[in-house]
Amino acid sequence: MSTAKARTAHARAILGPELHDQLSNTRVLLVGAGGIGCELLKNIVLTGFGEITLLDLDTIDLSNLNRQFLFKKKDVKQSKALVAAQTASAFNPNVRIIPIHDNIKEPQYDIQWFQKFDIVLNALDNLDARRHVNKMCMAAQVPLVESGTAGYLGQVQPLLMDRTECFDCIPKSTPKTFPVCTIRSTPSQPIHCIVWSKSYLMGQLFGEDEDAVGELDEAEKQGENAREIETLRNEAQAFKAVRTALRSSSSSDAAKMVFQKVFNADIKNLLVMEDMWRSRAPPTPLDFDTIMNETLTLKDNLELFVSRCVWLGCCSCNFQSHLRLSLSTNRLAARLKGGEDTISFDKDDDDTLDFVTASSNLRSTAYGIGTKTRWEMAGNIIPAIATTNAIVSGLIVLQALHLLRKTYDKMRNVHLQFKPAVPLSTITLSPPNPACGICRDTYALLLCDPSRAVLGDVIKGLLGDDKREVSVYEDKRILSDPDLDDNNERTLESLNVTRGKFLAIVDEEGDRATISVGLGVLP
Ligand SMILES: Nc1ncnc2c1ncn2[C@@H]1O[C@H](COP(=O)(O)OP(=O)(O)OP(=O)(O)O)[C@@H](O)[C@H]1O
Ligand SMILES: [Zn+2]
Questions:
Q1: From atom 19 of ligand 1, which residue's Cα is the shortest distance away?
Q2: Ligand 1: which atom is nearest the Cα of residue 384?
Q3: Most CB atoms within 10 A, among 66, 140, 408, 463?
């Protein structure tokens, strides 16, 4: 048998010649080239899908290599989409892979762009992008397979407009957020200190050189305490000196500077605002040398302490946090000096995990809140498991084949569960939720020049002789309603309604489905 025939012989035998031939003419969009994406790309290349567009916005990180097998150490910092496409192309010369290094939410990936594909496969890691692709697939009427993994658990769900539930038919809970002031000045639970450390302190010290003032402006608008916000503004500005010390080769005690600023000076500044502490227990400023000296009275046991506490992560006493903070800060500072521009929290990066464990525990101590060991901290962070990704990627292909063959009654919502005896559970698909604000809309495509098209004309054009009363929205912004026609003379561009966005035309009586008009460009 020739090489080309041998390569496809098994796939052809399993799929049957008809489906196999169909696949070689199938155009698929794969969004995400991370843990699931790499596995899935390998699968669909070997199955024989003809043309694969692979899109991912990210570059390869060292911590990806343990499970994203299309990448090697030499590829770190390169585009995930480009490298994955290059590696996987070699698996099957009959497949064309088109890599795109970009965000799927960019406006050029509009309805018409999605309509080019026969099927879309999601291999994403966040709700926002998943919801976006879901909406685009509903608007473009392109079948979608949605997927996700978390540790040993996984899920695969085929989605098809008018036939199955869409991703948004059942509202998903969004990750919990806390008010800025709770995180920055009045934490009362360990989680507040962890969020502070991961998303604020890490950014201020090791992230992009941005002042955290925008977030505070927003908090002030939302009515959070103005004086408290003013203090937090000064606190954020005072990070400059510490940032410089962390990056300068002459500074040897950057860890002490970090400590004194965040656990001593900043806390003292907050204590000045007495009225804040009338109804809650005030924090206690910590001192770098005092904790060190207290510890040194245990000098004889120091070695034991270091080996047991720090490396086993068995306790979260002040000494351990103190030492762990110093060591991890020095390691992170060395990385900055060694050429890393920014470092952000990554669960696979021990230096950042240590830094977050230590700094959030020291903050908890200052505020009299319970501390967490490194194990507990890591326990809250779900590791990515390569085999889970591999199983889920196989299931995605099976569901994709049902969608392409149109054997809809065979499609299932599949869960990978932590039950060795029954690792997979399958659920028959539910029909669309009649109240869904995404897949129950009627979609239309409008090709126009937004600098010339006028809102009022667009509405009239769409409704024709239909005289019903409507309100018009772009996302959550209301643009017009029966009592507000000021915008009707304005161009879409002046209203910031441009390519890739949707105008939602909502029936005032609520009798008819919302018309969702996606904007595309003129040929
Ligand atoms: N809006 C988006 N547009 C394009 N690609 C996206 C978008 N959002 C997320 N992604 C990509 O989806 C992929 C998800 O893969 P995965 O969950 O393995 O993430 P990771 O960052 O590689 O690993 P981990 O989060 O486990 O450390 C990532 O490569 C990410 O860049
Ligand atoms: Zn829906």
A1: 34
A2: 26
A3: 140
